[in-house]
Amino acid sequence: MSALQIANVSKRFGNVDVLKEINLDIQSGEFVVLVGPSGCGKSTLLSIIAGLEKATGGDIEIAGRAVNDIPAKDRDIAMVFQSYALYPTMTVRQNITFGMRCRGVAQADQQKALDDTAKLLQIDHLLDRKPSQLSGGQRQRVAMGRALVRKPLLFLFDEPLSNLDAKLRVDMRMEIKRLHNRLGATIVYVTHDQIEAMTLASRVAVMHRGEVQQFADPDTIYDKPANLFVARFMGSPP
Ligand code: ADP
Ligand code: MG
Question: What region holds the ABC transporter domain (predicted)?
C-alpha cells in the first residue's frame, strides 16, 4: 500500500503557481528525496504533506486517509527542519520527552522510549545539558531524537543538515541512512544538494519551478535523465 499519495497537488501564492500538478506515489519504507534549486517549491510541498499548509488543488493521502481528515494530534508524522528549534530553557531530556508528555504517554513508556532513542543517536551522555551547551551536530541529533521517540510512520526532513559543516554533514548523512535501515520508516527528505540526494534516496524527485521533472531511482536519474534540466542539475555526463 502507498504510505503517501500526492495527487495533482498545486499551490498558488497570490498569482504565482508555486506547485503545479505534483504527483508522487510513495511506498511504505521508501526513502524519497526531493531535490531542486532554491525556490522550486520543496518546502511548500513538505508543509502541505504535513498538513501545515493547504494545497490550492489536489489530494494528499497518508496510508489511505486524506491528510486533512486526520486530526493534527493523530497525524503520525514527525518533521525535522534545518533550524533545530529546541526549547532553550529545557534540558535535552525535557526537549525529547516534551512531545510524549503532550500526547499523554505513560511515564514508564516515556523513560523507555527516551533511553532507546538516546542510545541509538549516541546522545545518552548529553541528557542533562541545555541546547546552548551542545555543538551543532549534537543539537541536530537531539532534534532528530525528538522526532524519533514518537515512532512516526512518516518522517519529513527539510534540509536538516544544511547548517552543519562539511565533515559533520557527511557523518550525519550516514547516520540518517543507518536510522532508516534500522527503523524502516517512510522518509521524505528535502535538499538542494545533489550528492546528498543521490547517496540517501531509494528514489529521487527532481523539482524545477514547481514541477517534478523526474521521479526515479538514483541510477536512472544519472544514466537516463528525463531532460536537459535534470542532466545539468544532477551532473549527468553529456
Ligand atoms: P524551496 O524550499 O524549494 O526553496 P519554497 O517552497 O520555500 O522553495 O518556495 C517556493 C516559492 O514559493 C518561492 O518562490 C517562494 O518565494 C514562494 N513562497 C513560499 N512561501 C510563500 C508564502 N507564504 N507566501 C508567498 N510566497 C511564498
Ligand atoms: Mg526550502
Answer: 4-234
Phi-psi sector, 104: left (phi>0), alpha (psi -120 to 50), beta: left
Residue written as grid cell 545533489: 194
40 CB within 6 A, ligand 1? yes
Residues with Cβ within 8 Å of residue 119, at least 6 apart in sequence: none
One-letter amino acid at 86 equals L
Grid cell at residue 89: 530553557
| Cα 121 from Cα 95, distance rounded (Å) | 15
Backbone angles phi, psi at 105, to 5 degrees: -70, 135
Nearest-atom number in ligand 1 for the CA of 14 is 25
Q: pTM for this structure?
A: 0.90
For residue 94, the model assigns a pLDDT of: 94
The number of beta carbons lying within 10 Å of the beta carbon of residue 228 is 11
User: What's phi and psi for 129, nearest 5 deg?
Assistant: -85, 160
pLDDT, position 238: 64
The closest of 117, 75, 66 to 95, measured between CA atoms, is 117
**Are 84 and 58 contacting, i.e. CB atoms less than 8 angstroms apart?**
no
Torsion of CA 69, 73, 75, 79, to 10 degrees: 130
How far apart CA 144 and CA 121 sit, in angstroms, is 8
Which grid cell sits at 15?
498569482
Q: Is the minimum distance from the CB of 18 to ligand 1 under 6 angstroms? A: yes
